[in-house]
Amino acid sequence: MDILNHSCQNSTRVIFMYKRITIAFLILTLVFGILISNLGFIAFKANDSPVSYNRSQKSLTLSTSRGMIYDTNMKKIVNTEKEILTACLPTTNALNSVKEYLTDEEVKGLYEDMNKGKISILNLPKRFNENHIKSVTMVNRYSSDQPCVHLIGHLDQSGNGVMGLEKAYNEILSSDTGNLKAVWSCDAIGNILLGEGIDFETSNYMSPSGIQLTIDLDIQQIAEKALINNKIENGAVVILNSHTNEILAMASLPTFNPNDISQSLKNPDSPFLNRSMTPYCVGSVFKPIVACSAIENNINFNYNCNGNIKVGETVFNCSNNTAHGNVDIDSAMQHSCNCYFIALGQKIGAEKLLSLCKNFGLGNSLELADNFYVKSGILPDEGSINSQQALANLSFGQGELLASPIHLATVYSCFANGGYYRPPTLMKAVIDQNKNQIKKVELPQEKKILSDETIKKIDDVLKNVVYMGNGRNALSEMTENHGKTATAQSGWFVDGKEITHTWFCGYFEVNSTSYTVAIFKDDGQSGATDCAPVFKEVSEEIYLIKSNAN
After folding, report:
1. Pair type for strands 81-88 and 235-241
2. Beta bridge partners of 521
3. What pLDDT is recorded for position 387?
4. Could you say which architecture CATH assigns to the domain 217-257+277-549?
5. Please, are residues 533 and 230 in contact by the beta-carbon 8 Å criterion?
6. Has this prediction a pTM greater than 0.85?
7. Integer Cα distance of 132 and 313 in angstroms
């Protein structure tokens, strides 16, 4: 009986203990459930909150900038064309805001992108500044009508220069790059946090540092327009400050589109060729050099031209076999008498004539800027001028002689600058972030190569070519123009017709500044009709802008 009672008491205790454990377990379960519920609520609120500890930021680069290129007056030559970009979050409000500016097909594409949760970048005529849709101004490296395109060059797909100054100064221009980015926030799994909107970041974008050229952008545009206005499809213009030989303009046609070079790759007219820096046959624009050599060597010469001259066994003709009669150095230059200058060259001799040519830099490569060269062309040496006939060819600018427009502009600037020769320059300075010149390029030393007497005489001769000779198409009432025409035989034939290279080289003065201009046309008719009118237009347009500036 005692054992039974003791057993009943133990059973009662066990049952009671199990009840207590069960109650405790239920209480703990309830507490944990409340805690878990609260944690879930906290997590949900954190994900919905604009301040999420699991948030990340994403970005899209819209534009990358590189160093500026300025003209001599610190006007931008590149980075001038602006474009409005609009970034849209994938929301119905954004779609509704822009769809009136889009075609049905564009709206459909935008809707599909938004359904995929993508950010959209659009070109729209209107600016927006809302949480879900914002606009920003992007600057294009090159404009749709980019000036100085052959000088500037272009970039490859990685943003490095592969031509022109972009290539020559790639290290400097790429050392200060910047970015324009669209930025937005995402949650831990990459979903866009729409409540936080979209914005833009600029990191050194459009830094003002870069390089400064001697180019005068206003004069450059005059040169480019003059070629077009006078229907020169393949040609070049070079304009120098005659006193310093700083290059103010270098224009070449045809051009190419630096924003899409593929358009020009198959063009048979070689649009990537910078004709202002390419050597060509020069013809009669060489005759003033022969005249200067004669004057320097005290050769005063008259000649009776009957339309042709025999040198050795070769007969040379004046244009159209025209007989110019009794001519001196002045009248021979006015009428571009080949026979006179052939006879004059025989009196001067190859050694003296070539010596002066070398002083003018003919036959030498010209370094216009660091790693930016003009081809040397060809100046025959005494070994190749080994006959009277070879000297005769050289004396009126034919034969092996080749020179670029920049070479000939440098020659004529010597005439305009009192007989002082100075190599041409294109680079002016390196510019820092504050637009200060931190590395200024010094002008090359000038050298007196012609006497004052020679300069006075050649100046009068070249003035008379314009006022009384075959350069009359360059005559202007605004400026006193001096110069010489040329129609050079190239020795190149297309469909049985010889290609001729036509020229006008000369100089004029506006407000005490002298400008030297060399104009070239490939496959022209004559320098008088092709190039002299370009010179007139250039001189008058420069006169107008420089007179108005004062």
Report:
1. unpaired
2. 235, 502
3. 92
4. 3-Layer(aba) Sandwich (3.40)
5. yes
6. yes
7. 87
